[in-house]
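HUMAN: Mind sharing a backbone?

ASSISTANT:
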Amino acid sequence: MLEKLTGIIQRFDEIEAQLAIVGDDYATAIELSKERADLEALVMQARDYRETLDRIEETRVLLEAEDEDLRNLAEMELEALGDRRDQLESQLKGMLVPKDPRDQRNVIMEIRAGAGGNEAGLFGADLFRMYSRYAERQNWKIDILSLHETGIGGIKEVSFMIKGKGAFSRLKFESGVHRVQRVPETEAQGRIHTSTATVAVLAEVDDVEIEIADSDISIDVYKSAGAGGQNVQKNATAVRITHLPTGMVVACQDERSQLQNKTRAMSILRARLFEIEEQKKHAQEAATRRSQIGTGERSEKIRTYNYPQNRVTDHRINLSSYNLVGILDGDIDEFIDELTLVDEAEKLAMVEE
């Protein structure tokens, strides 16, 4: 850790030297000032830590003194310095844990019914309500981007944006396969059925981060359709965008104009492509070090909602709650907090190596 801290202090000193001679290059000055501000608190702690280590070494020399009173004072000083060193080490490790630059962004969430027919669609609707209620508890705003209902109160698929500070940091571990075990209302024999729905959580991406060439997309427009296939608008305002290199398709029909739907669809496409790039970037690291939380891939069964036992279990951290009704009403902080702690512990272990 000392080696890492030394490198950070050296970079901080370089920035201060560059700022002193940057002159009228305001763009460079702004960039350097931002980097300096990001490092300042860590550098102050690191310097305090190094000074404490130096004082410990200097005080240890006094343990060899002939004067007994001086030796006793040195022992007392070393005990206090040791406590200070341990405190600073703990704080520095937390500050060195890599921060996800996407944590403060808005999120695009996608829920799709999986195995289980109509019951899977009803479960998808339950999950949508759960995340909607959670967003309300956080005073976040929800915008539905695309919604395809089953006609019996279920959802075939839904895409929606949640806008709020720290939305991605709180919801990023929700990606994966969610499973429900319950007796459907149409089940005469009372047998428990198992159904699934997939959840994807994507950080909103700025246009400049993912450039999409016009030649890489195909855009189709069509009339928005309501439940049962009825046209709800006479004009063709719905937009379907196909990303030709990947075959990825994004559709949006809930806005009033074709331009608004195209903008929404492009936002979803950028977020998906950005997520693919992020997964590629971390593929090698994930192969050598698997977090307890997993990769967040949609193929992973991450959580089971068991109605007969009133139990919700997150399989990544082996955590169960017997508050199924409350959780489906948006009370999911218990899982989110524990998942965040496990993730931070994993990252901290990497810092300590």
